[in-house]
Design a protein that fits this description.
Strand order of the largest sheet: 1-2-3-4-5-6-7-8
Helix content: 40-55%
CATH class: Alpha Beta
Largest sheet: 8 strands, parallel, barrel
Number of helices: 10
Order of helices and strands: HEHEHEEHEHHEHEHEHH
CATH superfamily: FMN-linked oxidoreductases
Distance between the termini: 24 Å
CATH topology: TIM Barrel
Strand content: 15-25%
Number of strands: 8
CATH architecture: Alpha-Beta Barrel
Mean pLDDT: 93
Radius of gyration: 17 Å
Shape: globular
Length: about 250
């Protein structure tokens, strides 16, 4: 694990390098979609694939991961919506605790159920403080979690939540406006959260153009995740990746 994906995220953060991840929802793709996305991701030098969704009602998860691994060496990270979304074919797993909500099942309950399976999976496990931010539209994750998102204009709540997650031992903080969000997380909130935590900060939801991805990185995001916009227009991968990677490298 010392030389695994988390180590690479930490090292990239230390060097000021920003990362870009393409999110693939197994419910929304087939072999043709995946192969096209992988080829575009290779040429764009995408850093990671996140694979998963709030539901994953199909049985395509394992096959999807195997297809990605067959066609490229880009690391795959599971982004699970439930304990059943575990696959040995991934490289790592975001072990999500919904710290922005007050649903005990998603804070720790489902983790207790899934712990034996996750432990045996052989995956690199990355404990992740997951924060849902209001993106201006109801999202699947809000419905499934039965938890209200953090209001988009309440920076202080996001800051304190992220600080608490880090102090509780979370290895990553993931702020998400949700798939199909009408508005992405504002730069002010990202900047204020980035200033108070030392662990890598992941931002996703509602990012539909390269400029927004760039601004989020400038504000302090370490890893940008885009899924919905790429599902609609896969050619965006190259521009998004270029925008993220263009953010300056700090002197060490």
């Amino acid at each position: 694990m010392l030389k695994g994906i988390y180590h690479s995220l930490q090292e990239r953060k230390r060097l000021g390098k920003k990362s870009f991840a393409v999110l693939i929802d197994p419910d929304k793709v087939d072999n043709s979609n995946v192969e096209q996305t992988v080829q575009l991701a290779i040429s764009a030098r995408v850093d990671y694939f996140l694979v998963g969704g709030s539901l994953v009602i199909s049985s395509y998860l394992d096959e999807c991961l195997q297809l990605i691994k067959k066609n490229c060496s880009i690391p795959t990270i599971l982004f699970p919506g439930s304990p059943s979304q575990v696959s040995k074919y991934a490289d790592a797993l975001l072990y999500l605790s919904l710290i922005s909500g007050r649903n005990p099942e998603l804070l720790i309950g489902q983790h207790v159920v899934s712990a034996p399976i996750v432990k045996k999976s052989g995956l690199e496990i990355m404990s992740t403080g997951y924060m849902v931010i209001d993106g201006g539209a109801p999202t699947t994750v809000s419905y499934i979690s039965n938890a209200s998102p953090i209001p988009a204009d309440k920076n202080e709540i996001a800051v304190c939540t992220a600080m608490a997650g880090e102090m509780l031992g979370m290895s990553l903080i993931y702020m998400d406006a949700g798939s199909g969000a009408k508005r992405p997380i504002n730069e002010s909130m990202i900047e204020k959260v980035a200033q108070v935590i030392e662990v890598p900060l992941i931002i996703g939801g509602g990012i539909t153009d390269p400029e927004k991805a760039y601004l989020n990185c400038k504000a302090g995001a370490d890893l940008i995740v885009v899924g919905n916009a790429i599902e609609k227009d896969a050619s965006l991968i190259k521009e998004m990746a270029a925008a993220v990677h263009s953010v300056g490298v700090k002197v060490v």
